[in-house]
Amino acid sequence: MPKLPIKTLRFAIITSSFALAAAAARGQVVESAKSQFTFKDLNGKTQSAEVVTKYQPRKIVHPMAKVDSGIDPKLRQAATIAQERAHAHSRSRCWQYVKEALLASGIINSYPKTAYAKEAGQELVKSYGFKKLAVRDPFKAPVGAVLVYGASRAAGHVEIRTKDGFVSDFRSKIPSPRPLIGVYAKS
Fold first, then answer.
1. How many CB atoms lie within 10 A of CB 186?
2. Of 15, 47, 76, 113, which is most buried with the most CB atoms under 10 A?
3. How many of the other CB atoms lie within 10 Å of CB of 56?
4. Radius of gyration of the chain (CA)
5. Could you read off the pLDDT of 30-71 as tens digits, one per residue?
6. Planar angle of CA 144, 150, 154, nearest 5 degrees
């Protein structure tokens, strides 16, 4: 289809708009005009385009997290504990809050020693019997799973998946934008 000058398109749109308004004012129903806009281009060829009558935004809705029966129920309890203790905004102490929630739920028996959040997954696997799950999408992580994120020069981030979001030292409906290192859980 050849490119049309903007003036030609504007003229065609304005002319058709007036024609539709006049038809509507006379009580005439123009069914075909509601679905297709027809105009002639510079070469005299008839062109048409679909008319959008309503804007219907599609919200991006992320599904609720699923409860995996193969995961230790104490992880779901850790998610609940973390959610109760979390703040509305970050305190930059995500790994501390997650450690405390895991310890309070009884899923781990001693306080983890690593200082950086990005090292959490390695310690959970090595010292506490966690396994790395084959999940690459944070929204598909089961309730109670520990999500570990990396960062090149920073400490990283760690959070627990809840039924309707993610929690560490703060609550969030969306996961961290950092690169996901892994999703960890215990059977």
1. 20
2. 76
3. 6
4. 28
5. 444 457 888 888 888 898 888 877 766 666 667 777 788 888
6. 120
- Pair of tokens at residue 131: 């396994």
The alpha carbon of residue 32 and the mean position of all alpha carbons in its chain are separated, in whole angstroms, by 39
Range of the domain at 32: 6-50
Overall pTM > 0.85: no
Residue 34 Cα to chain centre, angstroms = 35
Which residue(s) pair with 9 in the sheet? none
Residues 120 and 37 grouped into a single domain: no
95 and 164 assigned to the same domain: yes
pLDDT for 69-119, tens place per residue?
A: 888 999 999 999 999 999 999 999 999 999 999 999 999 999 999 999 999
**In this structure, are residues 112 and 151 in contact, taking their beta carbons and an 8 Å threshold?**
no
Rounded distance, CA 127 to CA 169, Å? Answer: 23
Is the same domain home to 43 and 79? Answer: no
Residue 94 sits in the same domain as residue 148? yes
**For helices 94-105 and 73-85, what crossing angle results, to 10°?**
130
Contacts of 77-80 with C-beta under 8 Å, sequence gap 24+, read 77/105, 77/106, 77/107, 77/144, 78/102, 78/104, 78/105, 78/107, 78/144, 78/160, 79/143, 79/144, 79/160, 79/161, 79/162, 79/163, 79/167, 80/162
